What we know:
Enzyme class: isomerase
Binding site for ATP: 26-33
GO molecular function: 3'-5' DNA helicase activity; ATP binding; ATP hydrolysis activity; DNA binding
Radius of gyration: 29 Å
Number of strands: 23
Structural class: alpha/beta
Bound molecules: adenosine-5'-triphosphate, magnesium ion
Shape: globular
Low-confidence stretches: 652-707
InterPro entries: DExx_box_DNA_helicase_dom_sf, DNA_helicase_UvrD-like_C, DNA_helicase_UvrD/REP, P-loop_NTPase, UvrD-like_ATP-bd
Strand content: 5-15%
Protein name: DNA 3'-5' helicase
Largest sheet: 8 strands, mixed
Amino acid sequence: MDYLDSLNEPQREAVTYTEGPLMIIAGAGSGKTRVLTYRIAYLMQLGVEPFHILALTFTNKAAREMRQRIEKVVGNEARNLWMGTFHSVFSKILRIEAEKLGYTSNFTIYDTDDSKSLIKQILKELNLDDKIYKPSVVLNRISGAKNRLISWQAYLNNPIFYAEDAAEMKPEMGRIYKTYCERCFQANAMDFDDLLFNTNVLFRDHIDVLHKYQHKFRYVLIDEFQDTNLSQYLITKKLAAVNQNICVVGDDAQSIYAFRGADIQNILNFAKDYPDLKTVKLEQNYRSTKTIVHVANKVIENNKDQLKKLVWTDNEQGTHIVVLKAATDNDEGQQVAYSLFEEKMQNHYHNKDFAILYRTNYQSRAFEEALRRQGIKYKVYGGLSFYQRKEIKDLLAYLRFVINPKDEEAFRRIINLPKRGIGDTTVQKIVIAAHENNLSLWEVVSEASKYLGKGRSISPIEDFALMIKEFQIVVEKKDAFEATSHIAKGSGLLRELFEDKTVEGRARYENVQELLNAVKEFVDNPEKEDKSLIAFLQEVALITTADENESKDGDDDYVSLMTIHSAKGLEFKVVYIVGLEEDLFPSQMMLSSRADLEEERRLFYVAITRAEKKLFISYALQRYRFGNLRMCEPSRFIDEIDVQYLTTKNNRFSTLKGEDTLTNFGKPLVRKADDFSPSKPSIKTYPLQNQKNPQREHTPSANFVASNPAKLREGMKVEHQKFGFGRVLKIDNQGTDKRATILFDNAGEKTLLLSFAKLMII
Ligand code: ATP
Ligand code: MG
């Protein structure tokens, strides 16, 4: 057990305290995940069978990595551990127990598109306006209810929900929720939230099943506990009720999924639910430099809602946080790419040592272009994934339908694909016949002449039914790969793509081939116990953003581009947090309440704490958003970084390409640090093409910028956008960045970097 020597005292204590409830709430990079990993290895070495251990992680990738580490200690046995995300573990259990809930084990997992399409369908049938009942909003509401374990029956019976919906002019929400659940059930389908909701129902209504799993999972471990929702919490609470061997690790400062129902209360409830709870604190950070740890601590101090904890490190002091100021979003891309290249060369780093983190997916474009030009390999996580492409979803829909012919969403997708003369009117007829006879669409289709009468439109339906029946036989007899190839060909999908000789057509054809490769790999993988097509489809349905784009060619040396949300738990030598602008990060949508702003700040904290050696932050002065060029302001979060650890790189602005709209090449627009020195004119603005009056966009902070900070002297009264009124105590002219120490009436003493501070002299 050499690994015990590689742990500090409290870590070792957490690993070896195996019996009874244990909670580790500790700061970023303090070894929480490491403790969990070694704890599992330790349990196994004590003789606990791997199938008695259940470990829940935030992504499937995290589970895989953990398993590999454990394998190094205990060998092949690690394969038999129950490990994965809540959704993947409990969908496996639901498949085994499906009949108990009235489903069959071949149930489909609906993705968000399926759910939305079903909601649209329901709105149409109920004659409701999809502008009032926006499908995404409806879906969120349903999802929120399910994650709080509110069934449609409870929803309809609770006048509070009715009043809320009425106030939002959506009185029919309850009815939609009910219909949605009924239709999913009829289609033998569960959406993501159902996987957790139904597990709760299963454990509530079938005590024998609960007992079985309580005895099976003698040890339950949960990583990233701060991001569990009520539904997840209750599942684990039930499972651990007998043995009480539950170990949770998390960091309240990294809770970033409240919008999906994650509830920090779970941490607080945990102590109440387990009076014998042992808590272990981990305070030493092993990941980052002193500078980064200090800056992260300072930033999170601005949040009122947090459990106070100390995080410190013995690592080197490290270099300053560097701020890159860019003229435009494209310029930001270039500056980051140049800087990244420079860092890579100077320090002999690999591409995989770098991550570029942003608030929203669409920001990746500028960085992708710049990295491509620079010849640096990168991978974008998230966005439109392979499995969301149309041609892939089409083929998957065939597979789904063959396996579960009640799957209505798959049916609608493939009934006339490739075109076989079954138009909307015919589909409508099928739907009506199904409703009238209380049958599924497939039951009508498979006996078309009985339910739809004879007619010209019948024969393509009969052909379709015959084809599906034949596919069903193939799926029974052949392995997943052979069955998928057969269906790709037999359905005519592959031929249709093959005949499309355009560039896009070729790419689509190759994508389908790639899907076939994926099935082949799945079938050939010795680690997969269940090689059925159902198992493959289940795995695909549960792929999360962070699991995508796994390198297949074995070459994993690429820069990672991802949202901060997907970067949780990861670490990189050098991190660029980009787009640090007001309304972008913090996001415009998160400024309405303190709680929302605090969630954004936690997100910033997560981003900072991904960095091991060096952290860069960048922002652009203007950027295209929603099709318009907008002036941007540096984010308030930059103000929150302790200035003594901040360096602003006065980069020459990289050469602008034609598409940029600045006319003054090589010059910044506003607020370069030098602008504040007395020898230079204070604020420069330059005319923009394409925009009549860019200044208008700049309000309300225009006043703050337009004052003349060059005149800033000690003793002056100033107003700061965030801190309010104050008096300048000291101006520090030394160093690269000019800074002022100001005593604010309400916010106390602050030292601010003048190139960022939104100050107005009054
Ligand atoms: P996060 O909050 O970001 O999820 P974490 O608390 O889970 O972080 P880990 O990822 O487990 O932290 O650890 C951070 C880094 O520190 C890892 O590279 C890990 O290997 C290293 N580390 C943790 N504990 C020790 C130790 N005792 N000695 C050396 N390295 C350690
Ligand atoms: Mg971790």
